[in-house]
Specification:
Elements lengths: L20 E14 L4 E2 L3 E2 L3 E19 L7 E6 L2 E2 L2 H17 L6 E9 L9 H19 L7 H15 L11 E4 L12 E4 L9 E5 L10 H6 L7 H21 L2 H20 L10 H14 L6 E5 L5 E5 L4 H14 L6 E5 L5 E2 L2
Parallel strand pairs: 5-7
Antiparallel strand pairs: 1-4, 1-14, 2-3, 4-7, 4-8, 5-6, 8-9, 10-12, 10-13, 11-12
Helix pairs in contact: 1-2, 1-3, 2-3, 5-6
The structure holds ligand DP6.
Ligand DP6 binds next to helix 4.
């Protein structure tokens, strides 16, 4: 497995290990500019991806632990706000703890009480599994270290958390640091399929606004695993992998050079390619809505000849993330406001921007 430095863990019954305690991490969501679409066994991505870490859309997860009697079963309670987790999410948590227990077997000696809150409503086109599973991976890793009286330096810790977050949900591995993250081999020499690495481009990209226009707040029509499975027998699979590799390299170069024109071109091509791939799958999926398309067409007309530093992107749904530089904030916000008025639409728009990654609260 991993390419990170090995640490020597002490065996069980270590007197300085903490038998009881609480840790808490805050982890942001992220929006992909180069899309992760299609995966191999073990949550290995079919192609490299690159994302912008968000600032205000985050999950805060507190994990308390105490000894339990047997080490046969993973034991935990999970609450999202005041609600218990659904069966599906519980399965993901259990699987994640089992993955951790392969490396940190003492975790099976404890019962966990996990409490999570999101700053953004569920199913709003912001990936709650990315922030949720990343906050959980960071927290469980902290518990693993404390219950073994072990320590790691910060860089090692976030890289290992990214590795485990990936096992929970692919895009979650990109939620541990910022301002941007690269995941997947073939993007640059040190990028990996196992975990994501931070990317800090030219200073002009350090703060990019993200206005998320919610055309539809209903839960996703196609779950992420079913979506990725569409790539297994896709007629354009080979071409897509090539395209994503080339786009990742070009985007890294452009962002290092402060080149907004190429950033806009690649970001938008990636969003449209993702939907093109869905529509041309063996079982076609159509997630764009008439208003999503109208918005894009009106945006293209509005910006013609004006040189705005703005790009749209879309995940596997109908909602648009409109990304733009602070210098164009007024023009773009005015455009969004008048577009909603002109089209008699009373839609929610969430404002976010580039963020710096996860934070340990205690
Ligand atoms: C379209 O990370 O949600 O948002 O690994 O099955 O949990 P799983 O999938 P997930 O897929 C995200 C797909 C995407 C593009 C992206 O974020 O790169």
């Amino acid at each position: 497995m991993a390419e990170f430095g090995k640490i020597q863990f002490q065996k069980k019954n270590n007197p300085t290990a903490e038998q009881k305690g609480t840790v808490e991490w805050r982890s942001p969501s992220n929006i992909a500019l180069i899309k992760y679409w299609g995966k191999h066994k073990g949550q290995i991505p079919m192609n490299p991806s690159l994302s912008m870490t968000l600032k205000y859309a985050f999950t805060q997860t507190e994990v308390s632990w105490e000894p339990k009697n047997t080490n046969e079963k993973v034991a935990f309670d999970f609450f999202l706000g005041h609600e218990k987790a659904g069966e599906e999410f519980e399965k993901r948590i259990e699987m994640l703890i089992r993955h951790f227990a392969n490396e940190f077997p003492q975790l099976l000696d404890y019962r966990f009480n996990i409490k999570s809150i999101n700053t953004f409503p569920h199913s709003t086109g912001i990936a709650s599994s990315a922030s949720g599973l990343s906050a959980l991976a960071l927290s469980i890793l902290s518990v693993a270290l404390k219950t073994n009286a072990a320590s790691m330096n910060y860089d090692e810790q976030v890289q290992k958390a990214s590795y485990y977050a990936r096992l929970g949900s692919g895009s979650a591995c990109r939620s541990v640091e910022g301002p941007y993250m690269i995941w997947g081999s073939g993007a640059q020499t040190n990028s990996s399929d196992q975990y994501a690495i931070p990317f800090t481009p030219h200073k002009d990209f350090h703060k990019i606004h993200d206005s998320i226009i919610l055309f539809d707040k209903r839960p996703k029509k196609v779950g992420s695993s079913a979506g990725h499975a569409l790539m297994k027998e896709h007629p354009y699979r080979k071409g897509r992998i090539e395209q994503a590799k080339k786009n990742t390299k070009k985007l890294i170069e452009a962002m290092n050079a402060g080149d907004f024109e190429t950033w806009q071109y690649i970001t938008e091509q990636e969003a449209l390619s993702l939907h093109g791939l869905m529509m041309s799958s063996p079982q076609p999926v159509l997630l764009l809505e008439p208003n999503t398309l109208k918005f894009i067409n009106d945006l293209l007309e509005f910006r013609t000849g004006k040189g705005y530093k703005v790009a749209f992107t879309i995940d596997a749904g109908p909602n648009i993330h409109l990304l733009y530089a602070p210098s164009d904030r007024k023009a773009i916000q005015d455009f969004i406001g008048s577009w909603l008025l002109d089209n008699h639409l009373n839609l929610e728009v969430i404002d976010d921007e580039t963020g710096n990654g996860a934070k340990q609260l205690f």
